From TrEMBL:
It is found in: Cell membrane; Membrane. This is Uncharacterized protein. It comes from Urochloa decumbens. GO terms for cellular component: plasma membrane. Pfam families: LRR_1, LRR_8. It is a single-pass membrane protein. Residues 1-34 form the signal peptide. It comes from the Eukaryota. InterPro entries: Leu-rich_rpt, Leu-rich_rpt_typical-subtyp, LRR_dom_sf.
Amino acid sequence: MAAPPSPSSRALATAPCLLLLLLLSLHAAGPAAAAMDPAEREALLRVMEAVSSDRDWREAAGDDPCSSPWPGLECKPAPGGSGVGAGAAARMHVARLDFGVPPNPTCKDTATFPVGAFALPELRALFLVECFKNPDAIAAFTLPPPANLSSSRLQQLSVRSNPSLSGTLPPQLASIGSLQVLTVSQNALVRGEVPRGLGALKSLVHLDLSYNSLTGTIPSRLGELRGLVGLDLSYNSFSGPIPSRLGELTQLQKLDLSSNNLTGGVPGTFTRLKSLTFLALGNNGLRGRLPSGLSELRDLQYLIMENNPMGVPLPAELGNIARLQELRLANSGLSGSIPETFGLLSSLTTLSLENNNLTGRIPAGLSRLKRMYHLNLSKNGLDGVVPFDGAFLRQLGRNLDLSGNPGLCVADRAVVPDVGVGVCSAGDVARESSAAAESSVVGRVVRGEVARGRWPAALIRPAAVALCCCLLL
Ligand SMILES: *[C@@H]1O[C@H](CO)[C@@H](O)[C@H](O)[C@H]1NC(C)=O
Ligand SMILES: *[C@@H]1O[C@H](CO)[C@@H](O)[C@H](O)[C@H]1NC(C)=O
Ligand SMILES: *[C@@H]1O[C@H](CO)[C@@H](O)[C@H](O)[C@H]1NC(C)=O
Ligand SMILES: *[C@@H]1O[C@H](CO)[C@@H](O)[C@H](O)[C@H]1NC(C)=O
């Protein structure tokens, strides 16, 4: 919406040529013409003064702070004020404020949470990063009353890495209906429960509440955030079960609930999260079987679930999640054997199954996984001859760990780096020789096929890291 035209611009609108000339001169001369609404300017200066003492903000602002904005201040004309007729009237407004990390304004020792920022009529994004850091002046996380927020156009609120910010998540967050990205992360003192009302933020695309001290259960109303693409609640103290309604978040690509105190099982509804690429549930108190149908998560690349007392056999179905790159299930009370189906996971780079109760042979198919980079099977009850050839052992190098499996042995001392396994006796080798010969033939055939279409390993890891970074954003 455009600001009301000033009297002078209304007169000019009847003379388009003059208007054009005026616009051109505005562009060159800047400050004099489209000065910010004085009330908005005053609101901005009060926010600046509440947070930062880097400069004399009134002096820096002049009549129109948007004519030469400092780093951390972004101005935009109000949307909808376009067209030549409205051009002269379109005032600039504060659209984004960044505080904390230079070149943005740094926060003073006595900075308070800038509630006044929510009165800026066109503010779309507010960032407070590494802002509240003074251990002797704990700042309170506060927001204006709901009535003051209902007309807010804020789309992104980011409150990150503020060790001296304290309080609970203000329930008024639920009144900022325009929010698309809400990040309240790495504020160790922010505690209490997640306001149930957050389920009303229907425009939310990303919700990141990681690394705080939040408690209570995960509100099942979060299942109403149907547009959510990323949900990160990791590294808090959430307890109780994972709400099955999270299975309604069918747009979700990244779900991280790791490092909490969650109990119960993985909800069966998770098989509906068909867009998931990253699922992390590690370091909780989760138990029992994974829902059958997980292999329907065709895009899942990361399944990270270590340190849960699952106490079940390692499910063969995991071998059917074709795109898996990382499978982490260490220290999860898993029993049974390593399924042969794991040899189908041709994108796998990391398989971490250490410290479980796995028994039986290592499937020879694992050595056909040409992208495998990290394989940890240590501290289990695996036995028999290790079915890996020299090429596979060299591919993994020090990232292979088979130690702590007393029944395992390797057939050939020459090709063995330090994987924590002894050399087999003649008896072991004789018993296994026919099977080993068979697998090495298969291995050669598959290697030939894979080599033709193979990515250089040097490219795969940066690509995986880049993907990870995108997901985190
Ligand atoms: C809320 O709005 C009222 C009325 O516009 C105003 O007087 C008050 O200062 C506002 N409160 C905050 C914290 O912005
Ligand atoms: C998890 O719960 C247990 C028992 O209720 C408690 O002792 C422990 O501190 C909790 N852990 C976290 C990270 O909150
Ligand atoms: C393996 O199983 C035994 C008993 O069956 C149990 O005592 C032990 O804790 C289990 N180990 C792990 C790592 O789950
Ligand atoms: C394998 O896991 C164990 C923990 O059980 C750890 O100590 C070891 O460093 C890991 N090995 C590799 C190669 O990552």
